[in-house]
Amino acid sequence: MPVKFTLNGKPASADVDSSTPILWTLRDTLGMTGTKFGCGMAMCGACTVHLNGQAIRSCITPISAAQGQKIDTIEAQAADKVGKAVEDAWVRNDVAQCGYCQSGQIMSATALLKSNRRPSDADIDAAMAGNICRCGTYARIRAAIHDAAKNLSA
User: Which GO molecular function, any one, fits this protein according to its record (predicted)?
Assistant: First the structure.
């Protein structure tokens, strides 16, 4: 029986085993390859998507959890005011180096700014703690989040 949900604002369904992780449903079944596989154990954050507005690790969350729910991926962030502000700040602050982790980083940053428009460094560190960047761009990530927050409040 297909799992039905909303994907990036549009009705979607996937006829996969209900235990299939959201990550593989997105990538392999629906062709949404912006969400990345990193560790497969919810420890690196590369697979972060939003489920009903909350940042989740899609590599360990079964698609059954999305039944009747709303999933947003990196592909939809440019159409969202906060997501667009984060993406623009990422470019202005030259955050990406290799870029592999960036979709997960952006999704976590967007979730943070949707719930806290004036995050402190400690708030940012807490929200981003589960996102690993092998290139070590953490200072630029923090600067970009502050930049996006400033632009959203202007």
Answer: isoquinoline 1-oxidoreductase activity
What residue type is 52 in one-letter code?
N
What order of strands is seen across the sheet that includes strand 54-57?
10-14, 3-7, 70-72, 48-51, 54-57
Same domain, residue pair 105 and 139: yes
pLDDT at 154: 79
Per the structure, the count of domains in the chain is: 2
- Could you tell me which of 64, 57, 67, 53 has the C-alpha nearest to residue 23? 57
- For the chain, list the strands marked E by DSSP: 3-7, 10-14, 48-51, 54-57, 70-72
Are residues 149 and 90 both part of a single domain?
yes
Tokens 């593989």 locate to 24
pLDDT beneath 70: ranges in the chain:
none
Check which CATH number belongs to the domain holding 72 and give it.
3.10.20.30
CA 94 to chain centre: 18
Residues 92 and 145 in one domain: yes
